[in-house]
């Protein structure tokens, strides 16, 4: 797992490496990305049903109007935290230009898979993808 430090608009920080010990689903998204926005309710339901065994880290790739990301996400997916990456460092690191992109890490911090494009995170197919490491 990369040793990134991210912040929200209020300055709250999260060191990604501190999440080692639990499975982590990173979701790169943006407010202007229609497929990303359509996916948010399913990610929120996933957080509701499996949030105890899975950390979901939503990282906004918005470059402008950063103060609008938190209220936007709260309205669409209130259980998810509004982390920001205004410089696109995460997209560069994960070598993706397509949103949404999701990257799944096991509890040991090893990347398990990546999924490019929107997904219904609360269906049987997604459950099978997450089944190996999420308790």
| Fold-level CATH name | Glutaredoxin
Please name the CATH architecture.
3-Layer(aba) Sandwich
Tell me the structural class. Answer: alpha/beta
By CATH reckoning, the class would read Alpha Beta
- Pattern of helices and strands: EEEHEHEHEEH
Biggest sheet: strands side by side, in what order?
Answer: 5-4-3-6-7
Mean pLDDT: 92
**Silhouette:** globular
> Could you give a short account of the major beta sheet?
5 strands, mixed
Query: What is the distance, rounded to the nearest whole angstrom, between the alpha carbons of the first and last residues?
Result: 20 Å
User: pLDDT under 50 segments (min length 5)?
Assistant: none
CATH superfamily: Glutaredoxin
Secondary structure: number of strands: 7
Report the C-alpha radius of gyration, rounded.
Answer: 14 Å
The count of helical stretches stands at 4
Question: What is the topological layout?
Answer:
Elements: E1 5-7, E2 13-15, E3 24-29, H1 34-50, E4 55-60, H2 69-76, E5 83-84, H3 89-93, E6 101-105, E7 111-116, H4 124-130
Parallel strand pairs: 3-4, 4-5
Antiparallel strand pairs: 1-2, 3-6, 6-7
What would you say this structure looks like, in words?
The structure is a single chain. The mean pLDDT is 92. The chain has a single domain, classed as Glutaredoxin (3-Layer(aba) Sandwich). It is globular. The chain is 27% helix and 23% strand. It contains four helices and seven strands, in the order βββαβαβαββα. The two termini are 20 Å apart. The protein has 135 residues and is an alpha/beta fold. The strands form two sheets. A five-stranded mixed beta sheet has the order 5-4-3-6-7, with helices on one face. A two-stranded antiparallel sheet has the order 1-2.
């Amino acid at each position: 797992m990369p040793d990134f430090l991210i912040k929200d608009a209020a300055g709250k920080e999260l060191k990604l490496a501190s999440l080692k010990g639990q499975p982590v689903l990173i979701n790169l998204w943006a407010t202007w990305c229609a497929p990303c926005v359509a996916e948010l309710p399913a990610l929120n339901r996933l957080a509701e049903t499996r949030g105890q065994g899975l950390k979901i880290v939503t990282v906004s790739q918005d470059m402008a109007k950063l103060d609008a990301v938190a209220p936007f996400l709260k309205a669409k997916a209130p259980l998810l935290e509004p982390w920001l990456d205004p410089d696109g460092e995460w997209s560069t690191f994960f070598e993706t230009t397509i949103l949404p992109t999701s990257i799944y890490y096991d509890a040991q911090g090893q990347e398990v898979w990546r999924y490019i494009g929107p997904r219904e995170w609360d269906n049987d197919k997604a459950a099978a993808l997450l089944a190996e490491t999420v308790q």
